[in-house]
Amino acid sequence: MGTPRETRREQAEEVVDRLETEYPDSTISLRYANRLELLIAVILSAQCTDERVNEETKHLFEQYDGPEDYANVPEDELAEDLNSITYYNSKAGYIKNSCETILEEHDGEVPDTMDELTALSGVGRKTANVVLQHGHDVVEGIVVDTHVQRLSRRLGLTEEERPESIEEELMEIVPEGYWQQFTHLCIDHGRATCMARNPDCHDCVLADICPSEKGDSEIDLASGDPW
After folding, report:
1. How many domains does the chain divide into?
2. Of 98, 166, 168, 221, whose CB count within 10 A is highest?
């Protein structure tokens, strides 16, 4: 088992330093050209890989131009255009309803506050944080996706299970200037090394400070299950 730094704040800072060295070009992997495309891509990415979303939006963003197009298309037709995406029927409804709200209440512009974004259909705090950070250059929280959730628990940064509670604790220990980048670093490391089912602890740059390191630890702190 790795030995974490003395405090969670010191642990978080060490994690950021090491992962930034390991992934110097870490950034968002969704492809988009404007705020609306970003919003739609993030809605589609729920429980779906970014790679699949990027494949789907290649034609979607050519076919639909602006909130009017999404608001006016029949929902079943939009769903058919998304049929390779997980939960495409629900997501078609979210996108159509969100675009209707954007037209009716925000003059056709994607809103720039947490409250207004989370009032949109299918938009929770995670999605809103991504849109604020990458669409409006507003960083007021940490995006907690499945990678951030898993790594934060494995590394002993939190014992919380709910994304909202994890975010609150991370905001206390991750340097504010890295709130945005922390997510991208965790995603890159989660994809490359710290996978959910079979993490490559042997080649992990964090193994010596990770209390879940499976060479010695008996428990995966992310799930609470034995290795």
Report:
1. 2
2. 98
